[in-house]
Design a protein that fits this description.
This protein is an alpha+beta fold and 133 residues long. It folds into two domains: 2-51 and 118-127, no CATH class; 55-115, no CATH class. It is built from five helices and six strands. The chain has helices spanning 2-7, 19-25, 43-51, 91-104, 119-127, and strands at residues 29-33, 36-41, 55-61, 76-77, 83-88, 109-115. A four-stranded antiparallel β-sheet has the order 4-5-3-6, with helices on one face. Helix 3 (43-51) crosses helix 5 (119-127). The chain starts with a helix and ends in a 6-residue tail after the last helix.
């Protein structure tokens, strides 16, 4: 029903605690905390202003990161050493270096996941806390 209303050109004001729903349905988003507007804009504008252009790259390795090789600065390994995470601001520039460093360490990539920021991430950055019901 909401989709057909939007297609007809109607303006809709949706209030929700379900941030995924707001991401999917809303052209513009207003974040309100304790009755005050904290931020407003499109999803892209809110993400950029709250978190910048960073993305999380997670690489699953076929075997644990080699003990004799130090992790590059800004990289974090899981407890078992089989997953490496790092933040990148320019994917095209940064990803080749990440892949080269993994290869130089003698590690073998099993899988790679790229995760962008979400409205939930922006909400936490803007309010300093998790969403309350």
């Amino acid at each position: 029903m909401l989709a057909s209303l939007r297609q007809s050109g109607a303006s809709i004001v949706l209030t929700t605690h379900h941030l995924e729903e707001a991401e999917q349905r809303c052209d513009r988003i207003v974040i309100i905390d304790h009755g005050k507007i904290v931020a407003a804009g499109t999803l892209a504008e809110l993400l950029r202003s709250a978190l910048g252009d960073s993305r999380t790259v997670e690489v699953r390795l076929r075997a644990p990161w080699p003990d004799h090789v130090a992790l590059p600065a800004g990289w974090n390994a899981s407890d078992d050493g089989r997953a490496i995470k790092t933040e990148v601001s320019n994917l095209g520039r940064d990803l080749p270096g990440i892949l080269a460093a993994i290869g130089s360490a003698g590690a073998e990539i099993g899988d790679l996941t790229l995760r962008g920021s979400t409205l939930h991430d922006a909400f936490i950055a803007l309010t300093g806390r998790e969403l309350r019901e």
